[in-house]
């Protein structure tokens, strides 16, 4: 049965939920999807036919431009459930703005705000059982847009599909994270698309990341493409350094993604009177600080893992271990952010968004 909601989204419910087939205690990040998905098509110059329907395959022409020219952007956000069953998003307005910023750079038409929020509210209500309460549990939300017009001429598509998928998640990236500072490969360049969550940015990292894995590192910290002397960010996380008590992170630019977690950490640091410096960070400076014992921490910040403490970094043939701290900034920021996300603390900045 099709129901049309006040927001004009057609809803076609799954006949019976697949939720009982899922083991929520051994979820591999991003591999299981909830019962429903949202989609909306852009054609004849406007977004139309918004629908929530059972998760399943799409039928798309093999000539669709996304397959040939990579016209695709995405977002990553999470829904959290508190102990009373309340469902919350964290700063979703930021994700909305960013998907349109990414879209614009890839010549993709912007998606309307009201529909973005109506779609999120409705699909999250429908699949609310897929959000488990408890710290660390969440429902990862993947909005994305692909170019669907058939035709292999290298020009922007006239048709697109906007979709939202939901994937239940447990805590992400556990254990010691070992990273290597890139000396040869680059993620982004001036004037490029590094600031956008454009699909090709991620595909291009797989090969150099595989090389790093063969050497025992899980992630690459990308450096500037000119000199490889300045530390920029990780594949899906912004990077923070703590020297003595000062927190340092690179400024956002057209090469560095403007992460929601990054800006939330900076805001929390400000209110906690932690000295922060947003400036370029030299590889040599970090190695020097390691040598003289002032480098206390390095951690990544991003929606998937919230905060990922880094235990070791490599540069050239050298390996540098970081101290194990009793009271780290990483742990402190992680718990402060999660307390806000899970509705366990005050929300002085208005970051929580209650799903209707
Ligand atoms: C998504 C992403 C981040 C983190 O952004 P959040 O909004 O905090 O999730 C950082 N760097 C890159 C390259 C990313 O794709």
UniProtKB/TrEMBL annotation:
List of residues that carry N6-(pyridoxal phosphate)lysine: 197
A molecular function (GO) term: L-leucine-2-oxoglutarate transaminase activity
One Gene Ontology term from the biological process aspect of the record: L-leucine biosynthetic process
PROSITE patterns per UniProt: AA_TRANSFER_CLASS_4
Gene3D superfamilies given in the database record: 3.30.470.10, D-amino Acid Aminotransferase, subunit A, domain 2
Alphabetic keyword roster: Amino-acid biosynthesis, Aminotransferase, Branched-chain amino acid biosynthesis, Pyridoxal phosphate, Transferase
EC supergroup of this enzyme: transferase
Listed pathway(s): Amino-acid biosynthesis; L-leucine biosynthesis; L-leucine from 3-methyl-2-oxobutanoate: step 4/4; Amino-acid biosynthesis; L-valine biosynthesis; L-valine from pyruvate: step 4/4; Amino-acid biosynthesis; L-isoleucine biosynthesis; L-isoleucine from 2-oxobutanoate: step 4/4
UniProt cross-references to InterPro entries, sorted A to Z: Aminotrans_IV, Aminotrans_IV_CS, Aminotransferase-like, B_amino_transII, BCAT-like_C, BCAT-like_N, BCAT_family
Purpose: Acts on leucine, isoleucine and valine.
Family: Belongs to the class-IV pyridoxal-phosphate-dependent aminotransferase family.
Protein name: Branched-chain-amino-acid aminotransferase
Organism: Pukyongia salina
Organism placement in taxonomy: Bacteria, Pseudomonadati, Bacteroidota, Flavobacteriia, Flavobacteriales
